[in-house]
Amino acid sequence: MRKSISLNYVHIIFATKYRQPVLESSWRGELFEMIGRVSRSYECEPLAVGGYDDHIHILANLSRTLAAAMYIGQVKAASSQWITSHKTKPNVFSLAEGVCFVFGESFDSAQCGSLHSESGSSSRGTHIHRRTR
Fold this sequence. Notes:
The protein is of the alpha+beta class. It has helices at residues 25-41, 68-86, 110-117, and strands spanning 8-15, 45-51, 55-62, 99-103, 129-130.
């Protein structure tokens, strides 16, 4: 019996509506861990999850049985719901439209490191939740 194998990496970027700095550093780590759990529940292995006060990056291996649009929608819905119910006042938080890049098998792991370098000397800081194998 043949078995299909796929290796598709997705890099998703969600920004807060109007780029408002509402993702507080005191709880961003919890948010990134929750996004990792949601990703794994859809069999999309998160390689890195991180961000700043106004956007979120997700780098994951997309499941071969799930469309990218479905995965993005589910992660966006879960993260928005978590933030709204746990961390902000109602009607204060909203994610803008997401951006997604899909990389095939030739994805370079150095691209994952670029999530780290984005912070530069910014005082806003970052937190990357990496899953190690």
